[in-house]
Structure formats: structure tokens, C-alpha cells
Design goal:
10 helices, 11% strand, seven-stranded mixed beta sheet, L-fuculose-1-phosphate Aldolase, two-stranded antiparallel ribbon, single chain, alpha+beta
Length: 308
């Protein structure tokens, strides 16, 4: 485990940072999140107000940030493998490089999600060609077509995740958004679009452009009709958690539809309540933190191999 990992992968639980604390790592972790009232409102600290949720860490060293991002990306793939999101060579996560802004990281072609390590990730340029600095392995062409257009259209997107998960792709066959059936579904309220013009495997730039347009300017997820799910985030952790959350919502939707078809009426959460819940949940620090229990479990289960 690298020094960077030691500094940046402590538990995402509240920590006390006293006024005279010289631990700059802890200060760095809460620097941006500490003053985010919506994020801090989800947990309760001490009366003195010094016990804060950490949120997304910040870095002064771009190389350290890159390594940290790669480690979290590798863990996201391992998590996807555990959830059974892989199918053959399909599925990919992309992540914008913090140093070379027009480059991004992707998973190598035909490598199982459950075996990916940080060192397996591939760095590609703006045209999708493998470059030095990452693993020298080919990538999925369709994955590049989809993800490169998303990154072009959405400068705010650091990471994008797409797989053919069974519940996601099954619900996508209806070409409909999810309903607010559960409190967890409200994580996604008002931020999920539907791409209705499935054009087959994405080997043409036009298909990637259409998917990026369907995602829209500020949505965090898109249901690709007859295809699967797509989520985006300011961190790879956020994109991974949102994918998990959306796939679960699709699973719930399918179960509810089956019950409704047999005469059991659905009760939909009102727009007012869904928006109230979403206003708290839809926070980049919150979605990042939601993934940390899974990240830490992956690191523990792999004895740190995922970070290598």
C-alpha cells in the first residue's frame, strides 16, 4: 500500500480537527465539505461543532490525486464485479485525468471487473488511442465512443459508468424513467433521462453524441432504451454509487410492476416529498460518501491488492 493510500483512505466517518491540529491530511479531507451545510446536516457531531463529515478529499499534488482516483476507480470495478454487472466484454467506467485534461482512464478490453487493479487501468487520449502512463492494453471501442462524447459535452463530469446490468437493461426495455416508489429512488429525482433511439452497439460517433445529448446538461443518470444504464459524477465513487442506486431502483420497479399487474396498486411518493429528499441527497460529497463503505470493504477483502 502506497503512502498516498495511507493518507487518503481512512474511514469516511466524522473526525475531530482541533484548532491547533497539525494533521494537514485531516484538514485537507474536510476543507471543502466542512462548510457544506446540506452535507453536514445528514450526520450529527459534537456540541462544539468540531466533529465533521469528511467528504471528498482535495490534493495539492496532482500525481497523488491521480493515484488516489485510480485506486478508487479500480475498487469501483471490483464492486461492479461483486454485483454481477459484467457480461462478456461489455461495460466500462471512464474517468477524466486530473493532469492531462483531455485524457481519461478506462478499463482494459476483456478483463473481468473483479480482477482489475489500479495498475490495469488504461490512459487514452482525446481520440481514444492508448498512451503511455497506464497499462498498455486495448480498450473497448464502443466504450470510448459513448464516454468520450459525454466527457466532451459535460466538462463537469469526472467519471461515467455504464454496464448491462440485468435489472437496468430489463427496465430499459420499457423506454420509461423510474418512478419514485421508494425513498432510495428519490436519490435520483428529476435527474434521470431516457435515451429512446437505441442504434445498436455504439461504434459510430453519432450514437455517442446522441447519448450525450439525451443525458442532458445536468442529469446524473440516463436509461438507455434496450441497452442499459449510464451514470455520471464528480468522482468515480459518485458515478459508481449512482449506478448501484439506479439499478436497485430498476429492480424495485420491475417487482412493483409485476405486483401491480396482479391487482396490487402502487403508491407513488409525491413530487413534493421526493424533491425534499433529493435536495438533501443530491450532493457530490454525499454521493461520494455513500460509496466509501463499499470502497473500504473492497480494500479489506483484497488485502490492498486492488490498489496496486
Amino acid at each position: 500500500m502506497s503512502a498516498t493510500v495511507t493518507e487518503t483512505t481512512t474511514n469516511p466517518v466524522p473526525v475531530v480537527v482541533a484548532a491547533d491540529d497539525n494533521n494537514t491530511t485531516s484538514k485537507t479531507h474536510i476543507e471543502d465539505a466542512a462548510n457544506d451545510k446540506e452535507f453536514q446536516s445528514v450526520a450529527r457531531g459534537n456540541r462544539a461543532g468540531t466533529l465533521k463529515l469528511r467528504g471528498i478529499p482535495t490534493f495539492s499534488d496532482p500525481a497523488a490525486k491521480r493515484q488516489w482516483m485510480k485506486e478508487h476507480m479500480a475498487a469501483a470495478f471490483r464492486f461492479f464485479g461483486k454485483k454481477g454487472y459484467g457480461e462478456g466484454v461489455s461495460g466500462h467506467i471512464s474517468m477524466r485525468d486530473p493532469i492531462l485534461k483531455d485524457h481519461f482512464w478506462m478499463n482494459p478490453f476483456a478483463k473481468h471487473f473483479s480482477s482489475i487493479k489500479a495498475s490495469d487501468l488504461v490512459l487514452v487520449d482525446a481520440e481514444g488511442y492508448v498512451t503511455e502512463g497506464g497499462a498498455q492494453l486495448p480498450i473497448n471501442e464502443a466504450g470510448f465512443i459513448i464516454h468520450s462524447e459525454i466527457h466532451k459535452a459535460r466538462p463537469d463530469v469526472i467519471a461515467a459508468a455504464h454496464t448491462h446490468s440485468i435489472h437496468g437493461k430489463t427496465w430499459s426495455a420499457f423506454g420509461k424513467p423510474i418512478e419514485m416508489l421508494t425513498q432510495d429512488a428519490c436519490n435520483l429525482y428529476g435527474k434521470v433521462s431516457v435515451y429512446e433511439d437505441h442504434g445498436g452497439i455504439a461504434l459510430a460517433q453519432e450514437e455517442g453524441e446522441q447519448i450525450a445529448r439525451a443525458l442532458g446538461k445536468d442529469n446524473i443518470a440516463c436509461i438507455l432504451q434496450n441497452h442499459g444504464l449510464l451514470t455520471v459524477g464528480r468522482t468515480v465513487d459518485e458515478a459508481a454509487f449512482l449506478f448501484f442506486s439506479l439499478d436497485n431502483a430498476c429492480h424495485s420497479q420491475l417487482l412493483a410492476e409485476a405486483a401491480a399487474a396482479n391487482g396490487v396498486p402502487k403508491k407513488i411518493i409525491s413530487n413534493e416529498v421526493a424533491k425534499y429528499t433529493a435536495d438533501v441527497a443530491q450532493n457530490h460529497h454525499n454521493f461520494y460518501t455513500e460509496f466509501q463503505p463499499e470502497y473500504e470493504l473492497i480494500v479489506e477483502e483484497t488485502k490492498g491488492r486492488v490498489l496496486q
